[in-house]
Amino acid sequence: MSDVHDLVVAGSGVAGLSAAVYAARADLDPLVLEGDEPGGQLTLTTDVENYLGFPDGVGGMELIQRGRDQAERFGAEFRHGSIEAADLDGRPMELSLSTGETLRTRALVVATGASARWVGADGEDELMGYGLSTCATCDGAFHRGDDVLVVGGGDSAMEEALFLAKFADSVTVLHRRADLRASEIMAERAREHDDIEFAWNTELVAIHGSTEEGVTGATVVSHPDGHPAETYEAGGDVTMDELDVGGVFYAIGHEPNTEFFRDTAVELDDSGYVQTAGGGDAWATTETAVDGVFAAGDVMDPDYQQAVTAAGTGSMAALDAETWLEAAPLDSAQPAVPVPSEADD
Ligand code: NAP
After folding, report:
1. CATH T-level topology, domain 124-250
2. Whose CA is nearest to atom 26 of ligand 1?
3. Which top CATH class is 4-115+254-333?
4. Annotated catalytic sites, by residue?
C-alpha cells in the first residue's frame, strides 16, 4: 500500500503552482501532479504583460518555470500524470492516475484548469502562440495595426473582439451561423463598433504563417445555410476566401478538466466547472461539496480566467487545505461525505 500524502495538488498551471508554494511553505509536502498539459494555459502564450510585478512582461513559459522552481525550493514534489478516477468517499481519498499508479491523500487541491476549445483548422498546432491565440487579454496588445479574426459567436467572442478593437486596425468575427449566441448587450456593443465586422455563416479551415513570421493569412469557407465547414468536408459547394490577417483568436468556449469528478459528490455546474462554497459572505473559500477537496483556478472560475486570479485562488486553496488538515483527524476512517442514513429518507 502506498504512503498517505497530506496534500496532492492536481495541476501544474499557475493555480496549482501557487497552491504548491503555499502548501510547501506550510510543511505539507505537497505532491503536484503535472497533468496532461504541464504548466497549463500560460505555456500557450508568448509574453504575459498583465501579471503583477513584471513591468517589462514575462514569457508564459518563464513564469511557469519560475513558479515551479519556487515550489521546488520549498520542497514540493512534482510527478507526471493526471487523475483518471477519484474515490473521495473514504479516508484517505484514493486517486487513480493515468500512469497506472494509485495515490492516497488526506486532502486534495484540484487545479486542473479549463482547456480552450480549438477549431481544428489546418496550421493551428504550429501557430498557437505565434499569432494564433485563445486569449485576447494576453496577446491582443501584440496586434497593434493588424487585421485580426475572432472565431466564435458567444459572449467570449464579443468580449475578445471589443478588446482587440483597441489595438487592431480591424476585427472580423467569424461565426458559423447567422445568429449570435452572445447576450444582446454584448452583441450590440460589438455590432455598433466601427472597427468590428461580422462574417456570418463562415468558418475557418486553415491558418497560414510560420513560427518566424507569425500568422499571415487564413482560409475561410462560407455557406448560406451555416456550418459551412461540414459542407466543405463533405465535398459540398462552399464559397472559399483567403484573408490577409496578422492574428487569429479562438473564442469558442472552454471545457473545464473535471471528467474524473463526474462520479463523485463534488458538485459541478452545467458546464462542468467545480462549484465552490461561494457567494455572499462566504465567497472567499475554495471548499467543494466534499470535505478535504478544494478547487482553484480556471477549473472553478468560468468568469475571470486570468493568471493572476488563478494564482490568488491557488494560494487560497492551500490555506483552506492547511486549516482543514489541522482540524481533520489523522487516521480517521470516516467517509469524506456523510452517507445518508435511512432516517434521512
Ligand atoms: P459559448 O456561449 O458556448 O459560445 C461559443 C460560441 O462558439 C458559439 O457561438 C458557438 O457557435 C461557437 N462554436 C463552438 N464550437 C465551434 C466550432 N468548433 N467552430 C466554430 N464555432 C464554434 O461560450 P463563451 O462565449 O465562451 O461563453 C461561455 C459562458 O461564459 C457563457 O455563459 C457566457 O455568457 C459567459 N461569458 C460571459 C461574459 C460576460 O458577460 N462578460 C463574457 C464571456 C463569457 P453556435 O452558437 O453555433 O453554437
Report:
1. FAD/NAD(P)-binding domain (3.50.50)
2. 253
3. alpha beta
4. 135, 138-139
